[in-house]
Amino acid sequence: MLVTSWTCALPNGQTSEELAVQIDESRDARVLVLPALFDEANKLRRQAVEVMRRLDLAGIDTFLPGLPGMNESLVPLDSLSLTHWTAAADAAGQHCNATHVLTWRGGAILAPANLPGWQYAPVGGAKLLRSMLRARTISAREAGREETLAELQELGRTQGIELAGWQLSAAMFSALETAEPVSTPQQLTIAQSDLGGTGLWLRAEPDENLEQADALAEIIARSLGVGEADA
Length: 231
Fold this sequence. Notes:
Layout: E1 2-9, E2 15-23, E3 30-34, H1 39-57, E4 61-65, H2 82-95, E5 100-104, E6 117-120, H3 125-142, H4 149-158, E7 161-163, E8 166-168, H5 170-178, E9 187-190, H6 210-224
Parallel strand pairs: 3-4, 3-5, 5-6, 6-9
Antiparallel strand pairs: 1-2, 2-4, 7-8
């Protein structure tokens, strides 16, 4: 497993160097791993790496790209729209010569439609926003301020808004309100119930679950007809 970088095109015609985690042995099966979005990305990153390790044992290459504006990226998030993220996901798939895609939660709204693969517990942008909006209203109430969901939604649509530490542009906020997971029969849904237990995104802090990682990797390996994905 290697932490590396990849070059991503930006909306201003420039490029940025984004970090990536990859396992590349030049094998036939090459999976683009699209992370969860916003705070869920932090909570699920360790679990995604555990799944990548298991897929490696099954003979599958994987590539987990950082996206512009997320995590360690130097690109300001509020300079981006959802179409920029979609273009970045497409570019990442081309960069690693992906044969398949595995999305995590909100990453399903960015999935390249031309790739077969899997959507793990997919969720649309509106649900992600609702969670962050509620968290902001609770935080405001604890600080002695009153902010309503309707007011925050209008602010997000017209001026942009900061939610859970993420500064969203008006274009990003508006696009997320209607964004749904990519719909294609080539990409199969893997529900949390298929793995057992509850989703790690529901926990307060980042965590991992090795049994769930085993189950997810096994579903993918069997779908591809390759070796068992043992831990």
